[in-house]
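Q: Could you fold this chain for me?
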Amino acid sequence: MANKEQINQELEALKSKFMLLNTNEERNAFRSEVKAFANSKSDEEKLLVSEAFVEGANEACARADKLIDDVLWNK
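A: Sure. Below is the predicted structure, expressed as structure tokens.
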């Protein structure tokens, strides 16, 4: 079973691939890859993936809030 660090590394690799997608064909192939990734995980690993997604989303929101404060409100 993968641990949290391994899951994060796998998600970072997927995110890096996602950032390079240019066409709908590439996006469709990536969707299939993400589905295969999710389907390959045990229930425990799926929980770790979910937790990593939530943590990543919270971090992205915090960065966006800071950017808004820095740029728009000059805080």
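A (continued): The mean pLDDT is 93.
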